[in-house]
Amino acid sequence: MTTYEQLFENNRQWVAQKTAQDPDFFIKLSREQRPEYLFIGCSDSRVPANEIMGLDAGEVFVHRNIANVVPNTDLNVLSVINYAIEHLQVKRIIVCGHYQCGGVRAAMESKDLGILNPWLRNIRDVYRLHAQELNQIADDTARYKRLAELNVLEQCINVIKTAEVQQSYLEKGYPEVEGWIFDLHNGQLIDLKIDFKARLQQIQQIYNLTGQSHH
Known about the structure:
- There is one protein chain.
- By secondary structure, the protein is α/β, with parallel strands linked by helices.
- About 50% of the residues lie in helices and about 15% in strands.
- It has a five-stranded mixed sheet.
- A hairpin with a 4-residue loop joins strand 4 (about 175-185) and strand 5 (about 190).
- The chain is globular and about 55 Å long.
- About 25% of the residues are buried.
């Protein structure tokens, strides 16, 4: 366990290491951020956003919450998406889930979890949408893994539902939305290969917010 005081010592060492590699590192960092990616991930302490992608400070805009959920009424995540698109002009929005997700597991347990109930209901809704597929998976672990993947898919769809994504993509050709899973067992990222353009077309039949008709 790292002590509280040690955190500041770690910070000093990090500063020394960064300036040794590049004397101008913090001069560059203090200029405006221009990240290409928005990463929407889980708050789980085992999934460090920058590190798993090999990116440095300034290269990825990050939002994390329990079980990487993008609820349609959550001003926090919607503000992050808005800022990332309107001001940072990110090229890709990545929703990244992970196997062994406590939030996904908790959503499958029939117990009262207080303030977590409405939050986890977002994941229960994912289960309801995909119940037929999930109920055919006999093995609990395999079912949880599949639910983590399907949760990523549905949260990608929630990102695509937003006016900012639809309008920006129509005008500029970006951002595209990607769905990933991080496998804690081997550290690998898995691209779920969500067909963004096909999903966008499906979404716009119902959630079209571009001001243009789609037939």
